[in-house]
Amino acid sequence: MTRVVAVNRTGGPDVLSIEDWTVGEPGPGQVKLRQTAIGLNFIDNYQRTGLYPLPLPFVAGNEAAGVVTAVGEGVTEVKVGDRVCYQGTPGAYADERLAPAAKLVPIPDGLDEQIAAAVLLKGLTAYYLLFKTWPLQAGETILWHAAAGGTGLIATQWAKSLGATVIGTAGGPQKVALAKAHGCDYVIDYRAEDFVARVKDITGGRGVDVVYDGVGQATFEPSLDCLRPRGLMVSFGNASGPVTVPDLGILARKGSLYVTRPTSMHYFPDRTALLEGATALFGAIQSGAIKVEIGRTYSLGDVAKAHRALEARETTGSVVFTI
């Protein structure tokens, strides 16, 4: 038996239930993991509420790091004793679990397992957004919403290292200062300033080449006004609620704009793409281009408290559960 955080019905953080489940032995293509650190992400909330539905009951969570303790038939990707991490594989909130070997990423020597659990999902998101969705070039200007969040702190540093001018938004002086210290050339306090007007002022009226928006409903339409003609709006999250675009003509009126709603499953369809992204991410960390900020740690027993803090936007950087 192992401790898990189960979701038996969708809803608020109160539906998260600490239970003992049987793990079993790994089948073909699977491994058993003893987990040491687990990452918290907004997708965990979306699955818990039913916005991103999963069959009930399920074990919550999508990202963790740990040690391989057993391997199933046909597994060649990893071996017993390897330190590994993963993302995008539901069932992470557990002391032990079975996981598909093809989804596991080796943790480089010298990299702490808490860092690996804090960074893989968010860092791979930053990777595909900056290198694939819009291959960012030196001299371009971007706007990144929630720049003091886990993904934001990674992405803004990475974008700055590529030679971009980085404008971020954050809520309150503490978050503004944190974002400024992690790669942003300019940080707009959206609670105190009109971010559209400030972006236009910063860019001399031109607008930015790309907006990266994980906030969703509250920021989507104003963000269109921050773009230069034929710029790209990248909507990759729904922290304030899902986005609806009933009138596509708005894109024409605001400058023949482009809009995309990417997800990691289409950017990492196989192990080759996964390892390519992870290699780039860990390389950026080891080079010092990205410094990982773990804002809070919780015990797994405090999972509901952690979910409430994330939903209330009380957190900065990455949040990690320790085992």
UniProtKB/TrEMBL annotation:
Domain of life according to the entry: Bacteria
Key words of the record: NADP, Oxidoreductase
A cellular component annotation (GO) from this entry: cytosol
GO molecular function: mRNA 3'-UTR AU-rich region binding; NADPH binding; quinone reductase (NADPH) activity; zinc ion binding
A Pfam cross-reference name: ADH_zinc_N
Record-linked CDD domains: QOR2
NCBIfam families per the UniProt record, alphabetical: PRK10754.1
PANTHER family: QUINONE OXIDOREDUCTASE PIG3-RELATED, QUINONE OXIDOREDUCTASE-RELATED
Protein's UniProt name: Quinone oxidoreductase
